[in-house]
Amino acid sequence: MRTAYGVETVRSAEAALMAELPAGALMQRAAAGLAAAAAGLLGRVYGRRVVLLVGSGDNGGDALYAGARLARRGARVTAAQQGERLMERQLDPAAARLLRAHLEELGVEVHTECRVRGVRTGPAPSGGGGRTATGVELADGYVLDARLVVLACGVRPRVGLARAAGLDVAKGVVVDDELRTSDPAVHAIGDCAEHAGVLYGLATPALEQADLLARVLTGAGGDGSGRTHRYAGTRALTRLTLPAADGSLDLAAFGETEPAPGDDVVHLADATRRVYRKVVVRADRLVGGILLGDLGAVGSLARAWEGDEPLPADAPLHHLLIDHLGGS
Ligand SMILES: Cc1cc2nc3c(=O)[nH]c(=O)nc-3n(C[C@H](O)[C@H](O)[C@H](O)COP(=O)(O)OP(=O)(O)OC[C@H]3O[C@@H](n4cnc5c(N)ncnc54)[C@H](O)[C@@H]3O)c2cc1C
């Protein structure tokens, strides 16, 4: 169960979620699906306001993609982001500025540090007692009228039951590397589980956790190897392709994109051509990176990060960003 800006859901089936939303409010799903849904509504939103409630998760990027496409096709799109910058979990301030400039060029109005209090609804024009979204109310009471509202603001696990049972709860139910809660007889996986401070809210980590827990419960080393099974987190790269006047603007981000003390950072930036590349290296491992505008290096960087393998000791770090250019 989850709550998103006052929209309560009690079942995971998307149909059930959609049934609970007023007409004119979309829950973000995969970018392509959302863009198709939004395009289907274009007749209704042409020249009128669409408000995207954008969070910092992966879904926020997908919502921006749909918003960019709608703006290009004549809708007045406003992106409201509660955080300081767009995609703040994935992008550093410099990359977020480039992304914002690009969206603004496409006609998307971007508001950061903009807290939304709720979605306003009114009677649906079709009658029958249905409701339709009419706008969003900001924390300062200002109401933005809207013909369509897209919610991509994330989910929060409902932790009351776990808390009442005496389990350790932070944002989610806290679990260790064997997905065990503070009560050794209780495990938690999926959207409600918080591992190493991370709540994923995505299907792939939930599936990986389910798979690992099955192995933990059937006995460590049950495969005869004597190995214990430990969850080390799920590594997922964020990709986004936005329309651009002369093609598209690509973006990829992964891992920790802000360095910790002692980390090495390599940057390549060209604001005019809207190209930005950055990697963060800790000791001999790649721990994060951002590529915007030119994703030529994404394959090799993603492999080095996902594999968590030592980087070659004999190559300068900037080679990580330029090797795909044939050493230029
Ligand atoms: C609209 C929407 C779109 C999404 N799109 C994507 C996507 O494109 N890609 C992606 O990777 N992820 C997506 N997700 C996230 C993905 O659905 C979840 O990460 C995944 O379903 C998590 O699995 P889960 O088993 O933890 O939770 P759920 O799938 O939510 O299952 C939880 C189950 O527990 C039941 N339950 C809850 N409380 C109780 C109780 N007290 N007693 C008994 N049963 C209870 C619920 O009824 C539900 O059946 C989307 C989510 C939503 C809401």
Short description:
The protein is of the alpha/beta class and 328 residues long. Helices cover 25% and strands 29% of the residues.
Description:
The protein has 3 domains: 151 residues, FAD/NAD(P)-binding domain; 58 residues, FAD/NAD(P)-binding domain (3-Layer(bba) Sandwich), CATH 3.50.50.60; 88 residues, Enolase-like, domain 1 (2-Layer Sandwich), CATH 3.30.390. 25% of the residues lie in helices and 29% in strands. The strands form 5 sheets. A 5-stranded parallel beta sheet has the order 3-10-4-5-6. Strands 14-15-18-17-16 form a 5-stranded antiparallel beta sheet. The longest helix is centred in the first third of the chain and has 15 residues. The N terminus is likely disordered. It binds flavin-adenine dinucleotide (FAD). The site of flavin-adenine dinucleotide has 16 residues, from α1 and α7.
